[in-house]
Every structure is written in structure tokens, then in C-alpha cells.
Write a structure and sequence with these properties.
The protein has about 300 residues and is of the alpha+beta class. It is built from eight helices and 17 strands. The structure holds ligand PPE.
Amino acid sequence: MKPVEKIWINGEMVDWEKATMHVLSHVVHYGFGVFEGIRSYEQPDGSAAIFRLEDHIQRLLNSAHILRLECDWTFEDWIRACEQILKVNGLKSAYLRPAHMSGYGKLGLAAIDNPPVSIVAAFEWGAYLGEEGMKNGIRAKVSSFQRNHHNAHMLKGKVNGMYVNNILAKREAVDNGYDEAIMLDTAGYVAEASGENLFVIHKGKAHTAPLANVLGGITRDSCFRIMHDMGVEVVERLIARDELYIADEVFMCGTAAEVTPVREIDQREVGTGHPGPVTKEVQARFLDAVHGKRPEYAEWLHPVT
Ligand code: PPE
């Protein structure tokens, strides 16, 4: 991570090196906090635009609501903080990381009124699963770690502590020479990847896990719209593990990973072993949309002026 000048903390712009919090902060011990991952992109006129900013901020507030983590910053405050963080740091194409976390005060699970720590950071972050993966597809492994049950972890929230589950899966995959982990839900159906939602293309139709046990990805939602515009039907349904093996195409999508093709799963080639036509078209349209080259998706871009 390449440091930039400032990080927004509780309404102040703080120097990157001084952006610290107490080691006894509640979130450090129990992961009680929520966060977002957002990307901004340089536009053809040289300005910056944030992709689906309002949807990300709404999800941040929803996540806090799920945890009953009080937040004094309004929707508008978060929007302004995201715009400001890009401006003060002179960033255009960046990854933004807002977070709202239970801070320092009391320890113990019962602590409820510790003052929260709210941050928005922004920094450069290239292709999450590698440039090569974006182009030729990645290799994925079905994880031995199950996706947490939706009644154990509240999966509609982007909750800090919940990500231990995802990190276990990711590390296992990387330790075994794969790029990414695919997690099954507690009933054994395909849920999502460690940091992405997943689409299976079979016989011209797209299939993805229903929302109940996955994060409601904003990129997932964007892919729905793109495929609808391409005339590709999208079905939300339970997907069995071996459907991944016989799929024509599989791709992952998320803010960090954007749209990344999957060329191999558990040592089985997916389709031809190369990114397929639907995946390539979704990826191309998505990348054009975020870079302001598709007027029909202009509403997704929040200009930073
Ligand atoms: N599922 C999970 C578990 C997930 O973490 C993400 C985003 C998604 C799906 C896709 O959601 P969306 O970004 O709204 O399309 N993962 C974030 C964290 C990555 C990280 O390593 O940190 C991200 O992509 O920003």
C-alpha cells in the first residue's frame, strides 16, 4: 500500500502516519465494526468519479444498523468525506475504505457506548487478482471452510470480524497455489468467493447464488443490469459444487476484483480454459462503464468536482 497524505478520521483530515487508534479499541479485539470498499476512476475528461457511491454508503449505514452501532455521521457526511479524501490526496483512480468501528472505552462484549471511530481512507490499488488474472482468468479452489451461516454472521452487513472466515478460506487457497477461494454455504451450495460474488454461465444463461447467504454485492447488481442489457437471462438459485466444473464460464465480481474470469476450479478447466464470450463482454462493458465510456450507465458515476 502506497501511503498518501491524509485519512479522514471522525471529521478531521489526519496525516497518514498519525492515523492510529488505541490498541484496546473494542473493534481490535472483537471485530465489532463495519466497512466498505469503493472504487473511483479517472474519467475521459481527467476528472474523478466514484462508482455507485450512494449504494455503498447506504450499505455501510445498513451494516451499522444491523449491528446497532450508532452513527452520528449522516449519509451526506459520508458522501462528502469520500469526495474530500480524493481531493485532498489528489487521487483519481483509487480504492476508498470507509469504516465505522466500535472504539476505545470499555472492553468486554457488553460494552455498547464506546465512542465509535469513523474513517475514510483512499489509496491506489491495482488489479486485486492480478492483471494476468483479469486477462486470462484465475485459478480457484473450493474451500474447506464453509461460508458462515447467515444466522451466525449477519451476511448482509460488511462486518469487520466476519472476514476471519473469508481470510481462512483465502489463505488456504493461496497456500495451495490458487488465486482465490470459493466458499460453499452450510448446506453445501456455492455461496461466494472470499471477496467476490460469483456467476456461472451455462447454456447461455447466467446463474448466481440467491441473496440469502451472500453479500449483496454492488458489482453483482451491476452485472445483473449489464447482462440484462446484453440479453443474457440471469437466474438466482442454489448452485451445486459440480455445476462449477461443467459450467461454460465462471466469473467473479466485486469492487476490488471488478470482473475477473475463472479459468480453472479444483484442477478442472472451466469451459475452454479461457475467458468465455459472456464473461469477456460483461468485463468490457463494466470497465467501460466505470471509466465513463458508456453513457447508458452514467447514473452509476458520482462526479467529484
Ligand atoms: N462478497 C464478499 C464476501 C466481499 O467481501 C465482496 C467485496 C463482495 C462479495 C462484492 O461486493 P461489492 O464490492 O459490493 O461488489 N469485497 C471487498 C473487500 C476486498 C478486500 O480484500 O478488502 C471489495 O471488493 O472491496
